[in-house]
Amino acid sequence: RAKDNGRGSVCTFTADMNLNVVERMQLLSRARQAFDRQSFTLHYQPQVATADGRVRGFEALVRWTDSELGPVSPDRFIPVCEDSGLIVPLGLWVLETACIEAVGLGCRGAGDVTMSVNMSAVQLAQHDFVPRVLEILARTGLPPHRLELEITESQMIGSLDAAIGKLNALRQAGVHIALDDFGTGYSSLTYLRTLPINTLKLDKAFINDVHRRPDARSMVLSISRIAHDLSRSVVAEGVEELAQWEALSLMGCDLIQGYFVSRPLPADRIDAFLAAWEERRARLPVARDDVV
Ligand code: C2E
Ligand code: MG
Ligand code: MG
Ligand code: MG
């Protein structure tokens, strides 16, 4: 049920409803312990250019395997971390770790790849959010244009002006902003116009039928046209098949992210992925010059 409603506050609410008070307290206490013991990790999922298949960046996704509970999905523990405030230090750790990884990748020959990092509404609402982000960039040495912060529309509700002010400040410093999960929950074309975003991420729900159903195709085609008219780039999430890639390419989507290219990877497997991908890419029958 929570999944159907998309992410953000609705999702948080339903996720909370699914866990009883005891379960929530248990999850939070395990998460606090995991944070103190530094047992959260990050996985990285590549984003490739639709036109030529080259790797342009990665999205950092937090992972946690508890010794008793086993692997816990971020869809389950992020809402608990948000409600308790643990997301603030956890989010700073995620950001710093992802920036360090991006710098390392560049040094190892991956080029100017970008790093996308998910931001929670609770983080964005912190009064020192902007200086904290800038401080981490300065400390890690990642050029601001190589960082992309992912936010969702539901995070804007309630404090739109404050959020826009902060996002503008970050954009002025060169940081990129992406609107995540577009097409679920509260998606509105107004946000596409008014939020200072560089990138629109089309949710997997939009992508699922894009190669099979004309109505899904028209939606993606129209949204990507609007996005391009507004000078936003378009990323398709949850691409699992070559046929989806081909359809998205014809519809002008700029980047592809999904299991078709790779599942999210632990840091120590990125270099092997990059090498293997170059070989696979050369054999892919993807559109190159006939992009709309
Ligand atoms: P998201 O930011 O929309 O991330 C995309 C999710 O889709 C990830 O799930 C990813 O593993 C999954 N995915 C990617 N490609 C495919 C595909 O081809 N097929 C399918 N079925 N799934 C695919 P994950 O890692 O479980 O993360 C879930 C959500 O948790 C994320 O959604 C994001 O909203 C949140 N999250 C993850 N890491 C962080 C974090 O560091 N901070 C915050 N605040 N939220 C995070
Ligand atoms: Mg994301
Ligand atoms: Mg998403
Ligand atoms: Mg999502």
What does this 3D model show about the protein?
This is EAL domain-containing protein. Residues 24-278 form the EAL domain. The structure is a single chain. It contains twelve helices and ten strands. It is an alpha/beta fold. The longest helix is centred in the middle third of the chain and has 24 residues, at 87-110. Mean pLDDT is 90; it is low at 1-14. Strands 1-2-4-5-6-7-8-9 form an eight-stranded mixed barrel, surrounded by four helices. The protein binds ligand C2E and magnesium ion (3 copies). The site of one magnesium ion has 5 residues, from strand 6.
Task: List its salient traits.
single chain; alpha/beta; eight-stranded mixed β-barrel; 47% helix; disordered N terminus; binds magnesium ion; binds ligand C2E
Could you give a quick summary of the protein structure above?
This protein is of the alpha/beta class. It has helices at 9-18, 21-36, 74-84, 87-110, 121-124, 129-140, 160-172, 189-194, 204-207, 214-229, 242-250, 270-282, and strands at residues 41-49, 55-66, 70-72, 114-118, 147-152, 176-182, 199-202, 233-236, 255-257, 265-266. The protein has 12 helices and 10 strands.
